[in-house]
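Quick review question:
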């Protein structure tokens, strides 16, 4: 197909996404300057989401705040944060992503899960169990979260840390360290 024709066919989709983002930004609790997002994104309970300056969101990202038992969750995204394609952030309590963080492709950050591991809950289908939080997730300044990483509830990722691709983080990560694996373990401490 001719490149010019190909580009013309996709202009309406690009314009549609820009218009949608312009409307959705007004629904957010707070939005900084120069915030952009790719196509096919999904936001839920926008009034619980705050985004800082120079935010760059990739395509197909999801940022979902879940209101459980009349409690407003908090999703705070700092300045100069990049969330790449396919990432999913889910909060019913609090997820805070501080300045300068990079989330790699398909990263998953959640402070919640479906139900408990009690016999009563296990008898229910997972989507019928109440969403609950085991604690907030905080990703400190300048952390780099690799591709396909899962960050589970009640975790703090320390400043300047690196989480290797395909890792599952179930415990706090100290500042300036490199972690990897399932579950993620310290591989190296970054020293001056």
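Suggested answer, residue by residue:
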């Amino acid at each position: 197909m001719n490149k010019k024709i190909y580009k013309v066919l996709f202009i309406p989709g690009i314009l549609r996404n820009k218009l949608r983002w312009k409307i959705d930004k007004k629904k957010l609790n707070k939005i900084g300057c120069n915030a952009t997002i790719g196509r096919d994104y999904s936001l839920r309970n926008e009034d619980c989401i705050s985004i800082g300056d120079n935010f760059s969101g990739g395509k197909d990202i999801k940022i979902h705040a879940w209101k459980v038992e009349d409690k407003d969750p908090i999703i705070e995204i700092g300045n100069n944060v990049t969330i790449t394609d396919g990432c999913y952030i889910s909060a019913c309590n609090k997820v805070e992503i501080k300045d300068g963080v990079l989330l790699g492709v398909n990263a998953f950050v959640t402070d919640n899960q479906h139900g408990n591991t009690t016999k009563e809950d296990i008898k229910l289908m997972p989507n019928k169990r109440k969403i609950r939080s085991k604690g907030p997730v905080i990703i400190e300044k300048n952390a780099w979260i690799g591709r396909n990483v899962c960050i589970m509830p009640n975790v703090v990722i320390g400043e300047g840390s690196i989480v290797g691709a395909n890792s599952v983080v179930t415990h706090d990560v100290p500042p300036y360290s490199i972690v990897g694996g399932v579950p993620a373990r310290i591989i190296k401490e970054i020293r001056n």
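Why it works: The longest strand covers residues 185-189. The mean pLDDT is 90.
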